[in-house]
Amino acid sequence: MSVRKSGNTYIKTDNANPTSTELEALSLDWLAEAMPSGGAHVVPVLEVDRSSLSTRAVQGTGVTEEAALQFGRALALTHAAGSDFFGQAPTGWDEGDGWMGMANLTYLTEADAPDTWGNFFAEERILAHLPAAVDNGAIEGSDISVVEQLCERLRDGDFDSPQPALVKTTASRIHGDLWSGNVIWSRTDDIDWAPENAGKGTSEGPLPDTVGVLIDPAANGGHAEKDLADLGVFGQPYWDKIYDGYNAESPLESGWQERIGIHQLHILIVHAELFGGSYGDQTVSVCKKYL
Length: 291
Known about the structure:
The protein is α+β, with helices and mostly antiparallel strands and 291 residues long. The chain has a domain at 59-116 and 160-253: Transferase(Phosphotransferase) domain 1 (Transferase(Phosphotransferase), domain 1, Orthogonal Bundle). The chain contains nine helices and eleven strands. It has helices at residues 20-32, 65-80, 117-126, 130-135, 144-155, 224-230, 239-249, 256-275, 278-289, and strands at 2-6, 9-13, 41-42, 45-49, 52-56, 98-100, 103-105, 172-174, 183-187, 210-214, 220-222. Strand 1 and strand 2 (9-13) form a beta hairpin. The longest helix is centred in the C-terminal third of the chain and has 20 residues, at 256-275. It is globular and about 55 Å long. The mean pLDDT is 96.
C-alpha cells in the first residue's frame, strides 16, 4: 500500500488487496451519511476504482479542549446513524470480509450475526485473530487459555451493555479503527466541503475553531464504546473531554469506565497479529484484568 499527496488530494494505492480501496470509500460514505444530522466530519471521497482511492487532503492542526468536547458530541450522532446488526458491512459492500489495516475484518450477514455483542466480540473480534498472534510469537502458547477464558466471559454476557442513549438500533455505526491517528484535527475555516450541520451534534451554535475529521475507517456495526476506547490506546489529548461531549449528547450506560479495556482488546490483538512484540503481552494483560 502506498499513499501520496497531489495538490489537495491524497491518493492511496493498494495492489495487494485491490478491493480495499473500494471498501474504504464505502466506509467513508457510510459514516458521512450522519454529517447532515450533526455527525462527525468525514474526509470526502473524490474518486475510487479498484486498487486506488482519492480523498480530500485535510490540513492538520492541534486539538483543543473545546474541539475534543465537540468531537465527542458529533461522534455520538455518527454512532446514532445506526447499524442493523453486529458485523454489518457498509452499504454496498458484498465481497465478503474486509480489512482493518492489513488484518482481516469479519463481516457478517444478518442471518449469521449473533444475538449479543459479547458473542460477536469474542468470536469475530478476538478469537479470529488469536491463531496468527500465537503463530508469530506475540502471544505465548501458555497464555492462549487466558484469552479463551476472557472470551468465555464475553459469551456469557458479563460485559454486555446497552448502546448509548441515542442509538435506537441493535448496533452502532462505528469507525472501527479509531486510534488517535485516524482523527485529523483541522481548522474549521479550512473545511469548506462539509454539510452545514456537520460536527455540531444537536447543538445549534457555531463550531469551535478546530474540528476532528475521520479518516481510514474499518467501519462496521459494533458497539459505540469501542470507538471511544480505541482513541485512548496510543494516547489522545483531551480524551476525557471527548467522553464528556459524548455523554452530554448520548449518555453511555453506567460502568463504561470499567469496560474501556474490554473494548480495546480488538485493536490490541490485531496489532499483536500484525506487529508482534509487546502487543501480545498487552492483550494478555488486559484479559487477565477481567478474569
